[in-house]
From TrEMBL:
Keywords attached to this entry: Hydrolase
Organismal lineage: Bacteria, Pseudomonadati, Pseudomonadota, Alphaproteobacteria, Hyphomicrobiales
Protein's organism: Methylobacterium oryzae
Residues annotated as domain Serine aminopeptidase S33: 53-149
Protein name per its UniProtKB record: Alpha/beta hydrolase
PANTHER family: MYCOPHENOLIC ACID ACYL-GLUCURONIDE ESTERASE, MITOCHONDRIAL, PALMITOYL-PROTEIN THIOESTERASE ABHD10, MITOCHONDRIAL
Length: 255
C-alpha cells in the first residue's frame, strides 16, 4: 500500500490562519472522513488501519490533522473546540464532495457530532457517524468536573494547567480558553440529533471516557438508527486487532 502524500489547506485568516495537513485516498462510495482525538494525529493506529481498508476496497478516505496536531501548523495553546471544528468543516467543504461518513475518535466524536448537526442545519446530509469512545463535552464533563478546587483556581489564575498524560511524555496543556470555549459547544444538556445513523464503539475498561459517558450520549440520541457496541475488555484506545475489525465492520455497514 502506497502512503498518500499530505496536502495543505489554509484555514482561518490573518493571525488565526494555519496550515492543515490532509491526506486523501481517492476511491468510490461516500467519502470516509477520519476525525482524530485530542493530541492524536492521522498516522495513529486506527486511522492508518482505516486507510488500509480503503485501499483494499477502493473507498475514498480523508484524513487530516487539526491545527497544532501532527503535520499541521498552529500553536496548541491557541486552539479551542471552535478552531478544531472550523478545521474539520473546512476539510469537509474542500474534499467531501458528497455526503460523508464521519469517523470520530474520542474528541473527534464530539467534533463529528457538531459537524453533522451544523451540516443538517444548513440542509446538507451526512451518511452516518461511527464514534469510538466519543468524548462529547469532554472539556466540561471529563476535565473541568474532575479537577480539584486547587487545580481549578490555578487554571483560572494562570490561564493554563499542565495535566499529566498517559499517552505522551509531556503533559497536556489545558487552557482556560479551551474550557470556556468548550462550554459554547456542550451538547449533552438536551437532545443530540445529527440527522444520520450513529454507531458508537465503547470500551468498558476506558478510564478516560468511561462507558457511562457513552450511555449518557445514547440517552440523548434518537433511538432510530443508533447502535451502541460495548466491548467489555476494551480500553480507551480500542486499537487491538479485534477492535480494528469492529471499527472497519461498523464503517462498512454505514456505506
Amino acid at each position: 500500500m502506497t502512503e498518500t502524500a499530505p496536502e495543505f489547506l489554509t484555514v482561518g485568516a490573518g493571525d488565526a490562519a494555519r496550515r492543515i495537513a490532509v491526506r486523501v485516498r481517492e476511491g468510490g462510495g461516500p467519502p470516509v472522513v477520519w476525525l482524530g482525538g485530542f493530541r492524536s494525529d492521522m498516522t495513529a493506529t486506527k486511522a492508518t488501519a482505516l486507510d488500509a481498508w480503503a485501499a483494499e476496497t477502493g473507498r475514498k478516505l480523508i484524513r487530516f490533522d487539526y491545527a497544532a496536531h501532527g503535520a499541521s501548523g498552529g500553536t496548541f495553546t491557541d486552539c479551542t473546540i471552535s478552531s478544531w471544528l472550523e478545521d474539520a468543516q473546512a476539510v469537509l467543504v474542500a474534499y467531501a464532495t458528497e455526503a460523508p461518513i464521519l469517523v470520530g475518535s474520542s474528541m473527534g466524536g464530539w467534533i463529528a457530532c457538531l459537524a453533522a448537526r451544523d451540516r443538517a442545519a444548513c440542509g446538507q446530509t451526512t451518511a452516518g457517524l461511527v464514534l469510538i469512545a466519543p468524548a462529547l463535552d469532554f472539556t466540561e464533563e471529563l476535565i473541568w468536573n474532575r479537577l480539584s478546587e486547587a487545580a481549578r483556581a490555578m487554571l483560572i489564575r494562570d490561564g493554563v494547567l499542565r495535566k499529566p498524560s498517559d499517552y505522551a511524555p509531556e503533559p497536556d496543556p489545558i487552557t482556560r480558553a479551551l474550557i470556556d470555549d468548550g462550554r459554547r459547544h456542550c451538547m449533552l444538556g438536551g437532545p443530540v440529533d445529527p440527522a444520520c445513523p450513529v454507531h458508537i464503539l465503547q470500551g468498558m475498561r476506558d478510564t478516560d471516557v468511561p462507558y457511562t459517558h457513552a450511555l449518557k450520549i445514547l440517552d440523548r440520541l434518537p433511538a432510530e438508527g443508533t447502535v451502541l457496541t460495548l466491548i467489555a475488555d476494551g480500553d480507551h484506545r480500542l486499537s487491538r486487532p479485534q477492535d480494528i475489525a469492529r471499527l472497519v465492520t461498523a464503517v462498512a455497514e454505514v456505506a
